[in-house]
Amino acid sequence: MDLHGRVALITGGKRIGAVVAEELARRGVDVAMSYRRSKAETAQTIARVEALGRRGLVIQADLSRTADCEAAVARAADGLGRLDILINMASVYEARPFADLTEQDWDRSLTLDLKAAFVCARAAVPHLRATKGRIINFSDWVAASGRPRYPGYLPYYVAKAGVKALTEALALELAPDRILVNAIAPGPILAPPGTTDEERRAVERATPLGAWGGAIEVAKAVLALLDSDFVTGETIRVDGGRHLR
């Protein structure tokens, strides 16, 4: 796909998503980003997109609501004149022991991590069909590897495994329209806030490449998938080989 003049909508992803947005802008893409609460961070990212000479759009949306998903897609397409790329990054990642897990916890994770990706994709397809566009979903290296490793993340794991399945099924459904659908499954990219030095080092020791990847590695994977015209239904782990151990 020739990216110059294209339009992308990124849902959520204020840390990694910010780097993805900037790298897309460097390749000539206009970028809309949705947020729920992180208005300031999203506005700063879009300001950097505009500083690179591209158009940007900030969209407030609660993606747990179907109407907000649909409105975010419509606003991106209307505000920037078209829609070529949908990047579903919105997610909730919270640890909770199984004994404390509630039905509300389950619903929240499955809604934001899985259902929102489907609803946004469904809303985007009429626009993407016209441009032979792309959908990139975000799973997780653990779910993509098919083996839960960390207790306390049951709804998250199930939702992210569902994202992989959604990606495969959507790729098949949308192949006649030449809409390519793929997913990225990040591993140790950015340490969560509050991570101790010892926890950081433990992750590095457990990762064959011996380091955290950094958000730029995810952005590179996004660009690689967008560059291809013949890869669809794939989930690419960006994890420094973490799944090998």
Keywords for this structure?
single chain; 7 strands; 245 residues; 47% helix; 8 helices; Rossmann fold; alpha/beta
Describe this entry's structure for a reader.
By secondary structure, the protein is α/β, with parallel strands linked by helices. It has a single domain (7-239), classed as NAD(P)-binding Rossmann-like Domain (Rossmann fold). Helices cover 47% and strands 15% of the residues. The chain contains 8 helices and 7 strands, in the order βαβαβαβαβααβααβ. It has helices at residues 16-26, 39-51, 66-80, 103-131, 141-144, 154-174, 197-206, 215-227; strands at residues 7-11, 30-35, 56-60, 85-88, 134-138, 180-186, 235-238. A 7-stranded parallel beta sheet has the order 3-2-1-4-5-6-7, sandwiched between helices. Helix 1 packs across helix 8 (215-227), helix 3 runs parallel beside helix 4 and helix 4 packs parallel to helix 6. The longest helix has 29 residues, at 103-131. The radius of gyration is 17 Å and the shape is globular. The N and C termini lie far apart (35 Å). The model has no long low-confidence stretch (mean pLDDT 96).
Q: Uncertain segments of ≥5 residues (pLDDT<50)?
A: none
Terminal CA distance reads 35 Å
Strand content: 5-15%
CATH class: Alpha Beta
